[in-house]
Specification:
Helix 1 crosses helix 5. With 371 residues, the protein is an alpha+beta fold. The radius of gyration is 20 Å and the shape is globular. Bound molecules: 2-oxoglutaric acid (AKG) and fe (ii) ion (FE2). InterPro entries: DIOX_N, IPNS-like_FE2OG_OXY, IPNS-like_sf, Oxoglu/Fe-dep_dioxygenase_dom.
């Protein structure tokens, strides 16, 4: 918006990129400037999506239409909301997570229990895709038009492009198949998240292990879009390399696309849901807070989620199994509310058993937590 003066923010100063020799996961980088170069170019991108999704469930997109400065502006807006909202207002706009399974509003620090048994040190403010349906702290009000514009572009342009590539990759006849399940006009629980990790205690545990900030999980979403930020603390468990945890590199201006459990079910695990966690960063980045912005997409409320064997010849050829018995398949809203409600609450999440993973029931379906 050239010439127009935007409301002032409290600027968040991000940490400098780490210079330590850490092991990064190799992610495919998709150049979305090619998306409009015709059907052949789109087919090529779809093949790259297929390769990334069947191996990692994570990929990076660049040239997607949102600039690094627009991402920084959103991080600043989130930081400003956290800084300027007084504790009493945060308390009164607390998300009814346990009561209703809804994230809309503030998630205070300490709501989740980590696998170490400790409480999290992360503050979230979650905004409904349709911002009118979200609690509106006073500090957010000046930024509402900007935030809504950011959400709308992310949903209607970037997300829908990714979904058209998914449909092409799965050879589903209707390229808009997934787009129609995420209709902008209908209601769903998709949300924008501002997230601040507070590193108040930058000390290693006695055995030299790094402190866990957010336990290993797959997102409950269909797709999560992570706007890249410079602190090296997000790790993905590499399906390709003996399940090793590896750092996700920062690419300024990029979006990391993270497939969640809904995509895993749609594809009968042909497309992987990325297993990821957040840990304390390398030494040269400690003692800094980490502020970032995310968009989590889930289908419209009434969409029943099960494997798309009828729609996709690729899934039939791959021989995948249906994720749920038809009578057990949840609707999008049922799943989201049930899963949000129990995240970070149970002993399973706090890690009573050791080893790779813990399965927990969510209504008629299950979710898995990872170490
Ligand atoms: O902070 C991050 O980079 C990832 C956060 C995350 O995994 C989540 O909110 O689901
Ligand atoms: Fe996540």
């Amino acid at each position: 918006m050239p010439g127009q003066k935007l409301p002032e923010v409290d600027h968040f100063v991000p940490v400098e990129p780490s210079k330590e020799p850490i092991e990064f996961v190799e992610l495919k980088v998709l150049d979305f400037s090619k998306y409009n170069d015709g059907p052949e170019a789109r087919k090529q991108l779809a093949e790259e999506v297929r390769q990334a999704m069947t191996t990692q469930g994570f990929f990076t997109i660049i040239n997607h239409g949102i600039s690094q400065s627009e991402i920084e502006r959103q991080v600043d807006i989130g930081h400003t909301i956290f800084k300027r909202t007084p504790p009493e207002e945060k308390e009164s706009l607390k998300a009814p997570i346990v009561e209703k399974g809804s994230y809309f509003g503030f998630k205070p620090r300490g709501h989740w229990r980590l696998m170490t048994g400790k409480k999290d040190n992360i503050e979230n403010f979650n905004v409904s895709r349709d911002m009118k349906q979200t609690p509106q702290p006073t500090a957010m009000k000046p930024f509402i038009p900007e935030i809504q514009k950011f959400i709308d572009f992310t949903h209607n342009d970037i997300l829908f492009k990714i979904y058209r590539l998914f449909a092409i990759a799965l050879e589903i006849n209707d390229e808009d198949f997934f787009v129609k399940l995420h209709s902008y006009e209908k209601h769903d629980e998709s949300w924008l998240r501002y997230m601040e990790y507070y590193d108040e205690n930058p000390v290693n545990t006695a055995n030299g292990e790094k402190t866990l900030w957010l336990g290993g999980h797959q997102d409950l979403s269909a797709l999560s879009l992570l706007f890249s930020q410079p602190m090296s603390s997000l790790q993905v468990r590499d399906y390709d390399d003996d399940s090793k945890w590896k750092y996700v590199a920062h690419t300024p201006g990029a979006i990391i696309v993270n497939a969640g459990e809904i995509v895993k079910w749609w594809t009968g695990d042909y497309f992987k849901a990325a297993i990821h966690r957040v840990i304390e960063p390398p030494k040269d980045q400690r003692g800094h807070d980490r502020s970032s912005v995310f968009y989590f997409a889930v289908p419209n409320d009434d969409v029943v989620i099960n494997t798309l064997l009828e729609e996709s010849p690729v899934l039939r050829a791959a021989g995948v199994e249906r994720a749920h018995r038809p009578e057990d398949a949840p609707t999008s809203k049922e799943w989201v509310n049930a899963r949000v409600k129990m995240t970070g609450q149970k002993a399973a999440f706090a890690g009573e058993s050791s080893g790779g993973s813990v399965v927990e029931k969510v209504g008629k379906v299950t979710t898995t937590w990872f170490r």
